[in-house]
Structures are given as C-alpha cells and as structure tokens.
Amino acid sequence: MAADTHGRGPKRANGVREAEILHLLQHAGSALTPGDVTERLGNELTYSSVVTILTRMHTKGLLTRSARGRAYAYAPVTDDAGFAARRMRTVLEERPDREAVLARFADELSDTDADLLRQLLGAEPDTGR
C-alpha cells in the first residue's frame, strides 16, 4: 500500500478506517475524544481526518457523543454483536418478502444454531434431527 499524501502511513478505505476506529472505541472502556483516537492509532491519521471519520460515524448512528471540554467524546451505541444484529435487521427490512428471507435463513442454519435460535425464541429444541 502506498503512503497517504500526509506521510502518515498506508492509505486505507474509509470503511476499513471506520471499522478500525469502531473496534478501538468498543475496547476503550470509556468515550474517547478525537485526540485520544488519534493518539491510540499511533498518529497514523491527522486530527482533522479523525474528526471527519468520527463525525461521519455519529451521523450514521454508530456512535454517541457528549461534550468534553472543547471537543466531543465518542462511544459506540452497541457492542459487536449488536452491530451484527443491526446489519441483519437492515437486510431483512430492505427485502419485500420477509417471510421468504427468514425461511431461507432458517433453512441454512446449522443444527446447533437452529437449536439456539429456538431456545432464544422460547421453543423446545428439535430432537428429530
């Protein structure tokens, strides 16, 4: 990978940077300011780039923010499993035939995952498999 124009390290796609920052925030233990994020990324990005990415992620509903001094401190709205569930729900909501999507999803589950889903839904595991 080529270095970016600011000499700060390899250029990465925005989605990759967002995922990297989201992972950092999920494991931080508390909300972080753009300066905190910049420092924890090893100064690979400029402060203004980090502000732009955090603002974009907040606009997408991935992060909450609260005032901390002259900056905002950012935290994820949920954990990794919560984000995966949100993606699954979004895909389901985008399809016109929810029943067909859910049926196909259920048909392709492993026996273990199907039993877990039944348990989560309050049904008894299928012992006939």
From TrEMBL:
Coiled-coil ranges (or none): none
Pfam families registered for this protein in UniProt: Penicillinase_R
Gene3D superfamilies: Winged helix-like DNA-binding domain superfamily/Winged helix DNA-binding domain
SUPFAM superfamilies: Winged helix' DNA-binding domain (SSF46785)
Source organism superkingdom: Bacteria
UniProtKB keywords: DNA-binding, Transcription, Transcription regulation
InterPro entries: BlaI_family, WH-like_DNA-bd_sf, WH_DNA-bd_sf
Protein family per UniProt: Belongs to the BlaI transcriptional regulatory family.
UniProt name for this protein: BlaI/MecI/CopY family transcriptional regulator
Organism for this UniProt entry: Streptomyces glomeratus
